[in-house]
Design brief:
With 336 residues, the chain is an alpha/beta fold. It has one domain (1-335): Aldolase class I (TIM Barrel, Alpha-Beta Barrel), CATH 3.20.20. It is built from eleven helices and 13 strands. It has an eight-stranded parallel barrel, surrounded by four helices. The longest helix is centred in the middle third of the chain and has 22 residues, at 184-205. It starts with a helix and ends with a helix. Pathway: Pyrimidine metabolism; UMP biosynthesis via de novo pathway; orotate from (S)-dihydroorotate (quinone route): step 1/1. Residues 44-330 form the Dihydroorotate dehydrogenase catalytic domain. Belongs to the dihydroorotate dehydrogenase family. Type 2 subfamily. This is Dihydroorotate dehydrogenase (quinone).
Length: 336
């Protein structure tokens, strides 16, 4: 209710400014003890982790882990922070975030703007949150794609003891050539190297942290077959389906619809859900799936679950619907 009143005012601001202001207000409200959503428990065990409910926050909203406690107060079953890179980087030039309210969509070309992995770890250590925390890792923009695995290794090693699970993001369209890591020898080398290091860290730390891959919706059938085979070969623990799309279907001829970047929100729902279903059919329950992309209602969260998702994540839907979306999704989803 409060968000529905505030949203028109927030939408008068530049999107990135509104994003920062919303998080700051949420943090202040949380500190005053004035905001907490009590979400009914609907526990789900996935990747060896018990989630209090199956609805999580997708990466990108809190890139540096600076708002973990405030976001936890909204009732998420899990929170994913990042994408984080080894070194701080500013991301792409402004403007780089665009609302398309007529389509309940967002286009972003943020470019992994973040304060670096060391700052994220300090923020995680300062948080009081004891729930399920995913950390999403990527590569710096100036690291050649041929050496991308080095950046992922640095992040994997540094965040290992602070994450409930770690997501390998190779699907953002806003870092040059990043999506090339989704195919061929590049994917094989990346997964083989990261899996080997994950197992070494598990042995060293006596604690196993699941490794998850995040893919794009812009995949052909043969891409899905190949990625699924690699996931099974290297025993990757989970798959997030999907990131944003390069398609402009649903926003053609709308203001900002031709901006460069990844499209999220309502227009990506069908595409991402079809991709999810295709992976579910190929993987046949052998690897847990997290469905994300275009969820703006409980019914759509249930549709992701029916397509094969064990868990779901929301982000753009929060911008248009507000925090009540979390309860709606939890209520709609079936107990598994």
């Amino acid at each position: 209710m409060l968000y529905s009143l505030a949203r028109p005012l927030l939408f008068t601001l530049a999107p990135e400014r509104a994003h920062e202001l919303t998080l700051s207000l949420l943090k202040s409200t949380h500190k005053l003890g004035l905001m907490r959503q009590n979400i009914a428990a609907k526990p789900v065990t996935c990747m060896g982790i018990e989630f209090p409910n199956p609805v999580g926050l997708a990466a990108g909203l809190d890139k540096n882990g600076a708002y973990i406690d405030a976001l936890a107060g909204l009732g998420f079953g899990f929170i994913e922070i990042g994408t984080i890179t080894p070194r701080p980087q500013q991301g792409n030039p402004l403007p780089r975030l665009f609302r398309i309210p007529q389509a309940k969509a967002i286009i972003n070309r943020m470019g992994f703007n973040n304060a670096g992995v060391d700052q994220l770890i300090e923020n995680v250590k300062a948080a009081k949150f004891k729930g399920v925390l995913g950390i999403n890792i990527g590569k710096n923009a100036d690291t050649p794609v041929e050496k991308a695995v080095d950046d992922y290794l640095i992040c994997l090693e540094k965040v290992y003891n602070y994450a409930s699970y770690i997501t390998v993001n190779i699907s953002s369209p806003n870092t040059k050539n990043l999506r090339s890591l989704q195919s061929g020898d590049a994917l094989t080398e990346l997964l083989e190297t990261l899996k080997k290091r994950q197992l070494e860290l598990a042995e060293e730390q006596q604690h196993y942290v699941p490794l998850v891959l995040k893919v794009a919706p812009d995949l052909e059938a043969e891409d899905i077959q190949f990625i699924a085979k690699q996931l099974l070969q290297f025993k990757i623990d989970g798959l997030i389906v999907t990131n944003t799309t390069l398609s402009r279907e649903g926003v053609e001829n709308l203001p900002f619809g031709d901006e460069a970047g990844g499209l999220s929100g309502a227009p990506v729902f069908e595409k991402s859900t079809a991709c999810l279903k295709a992976f579910a059919e190929v993987l046949n329950g052998q690897i847990p799936l997290i469905g994300v992309g275009g969820i703006l209602s409980g019914e759509q969260a249930l549709a992701k679950q029916n397509a094969g998702a064990n868990l779901v994540q929301v982000y753009s839907g929060l911008i248009y619907t507000g925090p009540t979306l979390i309860q709606d999704c939890v209520s709609a989803m079936k107990t598994t």
